[in-house]
Design goal:
The protein is mostly helical. The chain contains 14 helices and no strands. The protein has 2 domains: 58 residues, no CATH class; 174 residues, no CATH class. Helix content is 58%, strand content 0%. It is globular.
Length: 310
C-alpha cells in the first residue's frame, strides 16, 4: 500500500471519529479496528470510482470499440463514441456493459459477442436495435446455444439468454428501447428531463432512476450501476443524491443499519438512513456511490478488511 493510501485511510478514520463525536453517533464503530476497516473500504470504493475517471480521460486504441477485436471494452468504446459525437452509441454500450457485466474469467466476452453478432458482418448497435428491437429475439433464438459459452457477471448471474423468456435479454432490450422512445435520442430524453425537473444533476438522476421501473430486470443495483456509470464517464450530466436504500437494498441497508444502529437488523427506516448518509457525506465528501458501496462491503466483515473486486 502506498504512502498516499495510508494517508487517505488515516484521514477517513479521523473524519469518522469527528462525525461520531460531533455530528451523528456511529455505534457501529465501537473499536479502532472497525474505524480502520470502514476507512479502508471507503478508500477501496473511491479507487474503483477513480479508475472509471481514468477510462473517461484516457487515450484508447480504436480496437477497444471494435467487437471483432479481442481488445474490445464496452466502457472504453463508449468513451470513444462519445468523443466522436455518437452519444446514443455511448449510452447503449454502457447499458450493455451493465446488463451483461464483466465476468471474472470471461471478461467482457458476452457483451462483445452479442454486440458484434458473434462475428457477423453487422452489429447490434444502437441504430440496429432502436430501429427494430423486435428483430433481436429471433436472432437470439438462432444463436442462443452458442452464446451460452459466455457468462454474465456475478451481479447479473440470474439474467437469462433464453429467447423464449418473457423476462430475458430480448425483453430487456425491448423495454430499454421503449424507455428511450425513438425517434427520441438519449440527448432528447435528457432535454425532456431538464424541462421537467430542471438541470440539477441529482434531480435528473432521481427522475431517470424512478422512470427505469419500465426497464425489465433493472432493479436497484442495475439502474444505480448504469446511471452512475453514465455520470462518471461524462455521458450524462447526472449524479446520485441518494443511496436509494428504500428500493430493495440488502447489503448497503444492512451496512447503514450497522453503522447508525449498532446492528445489521437495527430498527431504522431506509428513508431515515438515507438522510443520515447525506449528513456524513457532507464531512466525508466521497459521494453516495462510494458510501453505499463501502457500507455494503464493510458489513460483511466490520473489523477485518477484505478486498472486494466488484
Amino acid at each position: 500500500m502506498s504512502a498516499a493510501e495510508h494517508l487517505r485511510i488515516a484521514t477517513f478514520q479521523q473524519v469518522l471519529h469527528e462525525i461520531n463525536n460531533n455530528t451523528v453517533p456511529l455505534p457501529g464503530l465501537a473499536t479502532e479496528d472497525q474505524y480502520n476497516c470502514l476507512a479502508k473500504q471507503l478508500v477501496d470504493s473511491r479507487r474503483r470510482i477513480e479508475f472509471v475517471f481514468h477510462i473517461r480521460d484516457g487515450q484508447h486504441h480504436p480496437s477497444r470499440a471494435d467487437p471483432a477485436s479481442g481488445m474490445f471494452d464496452p466502457l472504453k468504446a463508449a468513451v470513444l463514441h462519445l468523443r466522436a459525437g455518437r452519444r446514443d452509441e455511448a449510452y447503449w454500450l454502457v447499458f450493455l456493459a451493465t446488463h451483461f457485466g464483466k465476468h471474472q474469467a470471461d471478461g467482457w466476452e458476452l457483451t462483445r459477442q452479442i454486440y458484434g453478432k458473434v462475428g457477423g458482418p453487422s452489429r447490434w448497435d444502437w441504430a440496429a436495435i432502436s430501429q427494430n428491437p423486435g428483430a433481436f429475439r429471433p436472432w437470439l433464438a438462432v444463436n442462443e446455444q452458442l452464446l451460452r459459452i459466455w457468462r454474465f457477471s456475478n451481479h447479473r448471474k440470474y439474467e437469462s439468454l433464453r429467447a423464449d423468456s418473457t423476462k430475458g435479454t430480448a425483453r430487456v432490450f425491448e423495454t430499454y428501447v421503449a424507455w428511450v422512445g425513438p425517434p427520441r435520442t438519449h440527448a432528447g430524453m435528457i432535454h425532456d428531463l431538464h424541462v421537467e425537473v430542471g438541470q440539477n444533476p441529482q434531480a435528473v438522476f432521481d427522475k431517470m432512476y424512478r422512470s427505469m421501473d419500465d426497464v425489465m430486470r433493472f432493479g436497484r443495483l442495475g439502474r444505480f450501476d448504469f446511471l452512475t456509470m453514465l455520470g462518471k464517464l461524462g455521458i450524462a450530466p447526472i449524479e446520485p443524491g441518494s443511496a436509494y436504500l428504500w428500493h430493495s437494498a440488502t447489503g448497503p441497508l444492512r451496512g447503514a443499519r450497522l453503522l447508525f444502529g449498532g446492528a445489521a437488523n437495527a430498527n431504522l427506516r431506509a428513508s431515515e438512513l438515507d438522510d443520515l448518509l447525506l449528513q456524513i457525506d457532507a464531512k466525508l465528501k466521497v459521494g453516495m456511490q462510494a458510501l453505499e458501496d463501502s457500507l455494503c462491503n464493510w458489513q460483511k466483515s466490520p473489523a477485518q478488511h477484505l478486498l472486494f473486486r466488484g
